Amino acid sequence: MFLQKAWRTAAFGVYGFTQFTKSGFIEHSKKFKEEDMQIQMEGKNCIVTGANSGIGYATAEGFASRGATVYMVCRNKERGEAAQSQIQSNTGNPNIHLEICDLSSVKDIRTFVSQFSSNDKPLHVLVNNAGILENNRVITPEGLELSFAVNVAGTYTMTELLVPLLEKASPDAHVITVSSGGMYTSPLTKDLQFSESNFDGSQQYARNKRLQVALTEKWAENYNNKGIGFYSMHPGWAETPGVAKSLPGFSEKLQGKLRTKEEGADTVIWLALQPKEKLVSGSFYFDRAEAPKHLLFSGTARSHSNIDSIIKDIRSVCGFSS
Ligand SMILES: NC(=O)c1ccc[n+]([C@@H]2O[C@H](COP(=O)([O-])OP(=O)(O)OC[C@H]3O[C@@H](n4cnc5c(N)ncnc54)[C@H](OP(=O)(O)O)[C@@H]3O)[C@@H](O)[C@H]2O)c1
């Protein structure tokens, strides 16, 4: 067990330093096709969570520059408005809307979705981007560990509640969840709120991101006939406010080697633009290609068989009927 964990960390480090940095992006981009990104998005409604900063901002701007109607879901009005007007002025697209919602609150998400759904418009793209790596154990007013609340409960609740609007955009709906290569270091675990051992923020982040990958697999299976494609992805290691705040040592060590936020958003935008026939629903993507969900000899694959009982627990925590 200890050896396997050490192996996972070492393998992740080597994979990361060679592939997830800027040089990895430059190398992989030699295979990118320019025409893949030359697709317009007029008439498409897109939600991007955590759109005021980093990869979410670059994603929202990428959609806006292609003519999409973009709904930026942000928790802070001032930061949201600043990003909204920046995107409007950079792209000339007036159809950029700001929705205030704290994604660590299931109640807030339910209110947001209920209001958003009242117009009954189809939702073509949902990007579950908002995410955090919180180094301390913080409990939300709803009693959830904060990282779990945002990364898992928030992502799950948002996606499940928006399925009816996504169905309206069928067969053209895409749900893209911004996971992380950090998930390679963890199997799927049932201890959702990290209450069975001393809290470790990086480990909890890896567990959450692993769970996003497993949830995506399950959504693809459950909603197979609804005309919605579900994809998880890794953006690579990009220089963003989130990384600078949560991982200052990492950020400093890799100064000049990290990707830009636009490079981090590249595969999110690519996934949203590609016809579903070109993609595999339930898969994990990195640099515009399907990527493995498990590193060799890492012992994480079997853990995905626990997903059904884990979903049962998430549903209970998030107030869904079983
Ligand atoms: N950057 C990387 O190297 C990297 C690598 C792997 C995966 N990722 C993933 O990429 C995604 C974006 O991260 P980033 O690096 O771009 O970081 P970032 O700049 O910190 O962006 C995160 C966004 O999520 C929002 N957010 C956090 N908690 C929220 C909440 N409770 N309610 C609503 N919004 C909330 C933040 O809002 P505030 O501005 O208000 O805090 C911000 O807009 C995350 O899911 C992250 O795990 C990033």
Automatic annotation (TrEMBL):
InterPro entries: NAD(P)-bd_dom_sf, SDR_fam, SDR_member_12. It comes from the Eukaryota. Pfam families: adh_short. This is Dehydrogenase/reductase SDR family member 12.
